């Protein structure tokens, strides 16, 4: 039993016939009907319409050169559909190589957070795009290899989808280890790393955790609510600095770079006296203080102004406590 085909579906089917035939070449009516899951009789009716379909030319009227055509003898005697003239299809807009590469990168980024069937579809689509990205012989100009999936990512996704408390061990940028329990809110990706936004039971506040610094993830009980209300503050109540990352720059001796690897620094400039300028993605100004604490007096926060102010305030408080 073939599926029922409405009038609107017949238009879409007719539009699909031309690229299919252009790719597969002469095809029998029976094979076409099986490919599109319609009856052979309906397929034959649609094929006869091809001779009156096309793209209006410069005169905006349908002349002979503006219409599709098929080998009518092969169609009538052998039930074979063979295009002899194609119009308009080759002029269809196509992705530029850079656009295709961007699509592949986006699909790779999504694969880790998609459920099984959708993730497989994303992988297959990325592979097809990679195969099409190249010369006319379809030699791949880009090797499509999925990164090894982080086993922590699907656990975090499940915690959000199932609204369950998530427990884990966490290592902060300074190397300190703590045990946390959180109510997960959302996942985001920035600078190639995944971040979990969550309500921390231990800090009684919203916090952002870097997935790469989390370990021993465990799904616990369902997130508790009181009389159907959300126990967390509305998202707008969270400070701007707590919700958005910013780039922090600092100068330091090049030899100290291994000591701040937990901050994932990016060297952006070499300075005199064997010093370097680095950029660090941070979620709050306290990160500037933690960075300076690695080597006080040797690491200097250069920007932004709010981070510099946070370091100055911390220094002033430390000196005041010392004088007391």
UniProtKB/TrEMBL annotation:
Domain (PafC HTH): residue spans on this chain: 9-130
Source organism per UniProt: Leucobacter viscericola
InterPro entries the UniProt entry points to: CBASS_pafABC_assoc_protein, PafC-like, PafC_HTH, WH_DNA-bd_sf, WYL_dom
This protein's name: WYL domain-containing protein
Residue ranges constituting the WYL domain according to the UniProt record: 157-218
Organismal lineage: Bacteria, Bacillati, Actinomycetota, Actinomycetes, Micrococcales
UniProt cross-references to SUPFAM superfamilies, sorted A to Z: Winged helix' DNA-binding domain (SSF46785)
